[in-house]
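[step 3/7] inverse_fold.run input=structure_tokens len=185
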């Protein structure tokens, strides 16, 4: 018995713990699994977070190191084409800012989108064709006026549904309170 207790203590002194396995406990068998101590766990977690922060910081700044697209901050030479491009850019949502149009946003992605719009307008494409291309590339979220389809039906009819529900609840509440007042008199 004494020899078995010494055998059990030896791994614990070496930094490992004995863990009963789920099925081994029923048979009386023990499985040795190395388990990190609390200091090693904290050190490993700190190292992992430091490496993750380095990669996140490097990837976040990598996009800004590229020079902006030529037409991102430069207008077209033809005022009529620039007016068409500006009108289209006012109706497209910045995917980064989400509350601004690509004409108003300073995000690098919005600059790239402005460049694409101006390049395609200069090439003679229509604003509708450019809008369809952007919607195909980025989805309906890119436009401030999403089309009516199954995915956006709640967006279009939700406010009307909530207004009707609120009117129905208010009407029922006022009618019930009017009926209660007459019975007391």
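[step 3/7] decode complete -> sequence:
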């Amino acid at each position: 018995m004494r020899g078995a207790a010494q055998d059990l203590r030896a791994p614990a002194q070496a930094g490992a713990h004995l863990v009963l396995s789920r099925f081994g406990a029923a048979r009386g068998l023990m499985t040795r699994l190395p388990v990190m101590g609390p200091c090693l766990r904290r050190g490993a977690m700190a190292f992992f977070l430091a490496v993750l922060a380095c990669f996140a910081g490097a990837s976040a700044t990598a996009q800004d190191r590229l020079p902006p697209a030529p037409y991102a901050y430069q207008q077209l030479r033809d005022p009529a084409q620039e007016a068409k491009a500006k009108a289209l850019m006012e109706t497209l949502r910045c995917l980064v800012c989400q509350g601004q149009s690509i004409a108003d946003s300073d995000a690098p992605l919005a600059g790239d989108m402005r460049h694409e719009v101006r390049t395609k307008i200069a090439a003679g494409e229509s604003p509708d064709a450019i809008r369809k291309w952007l919607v195909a590339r980025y989805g309906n979220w890119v436009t401030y006026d999403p089309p009516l389809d199954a995915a956006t039906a709640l967006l279009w009819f939700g406010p009307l549904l909530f207004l009707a529900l609120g009117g129905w609840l208010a009407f029922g509440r006022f009618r019930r309170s009017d009926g209660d007042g007459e019975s007391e008199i």
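[step 4/7] annotate
The chain has two domains: 1-36, 46-163.
The helical segments are 2-13, 24-27, 38-62, 79-90, 108-122, 127-138, 153-184.
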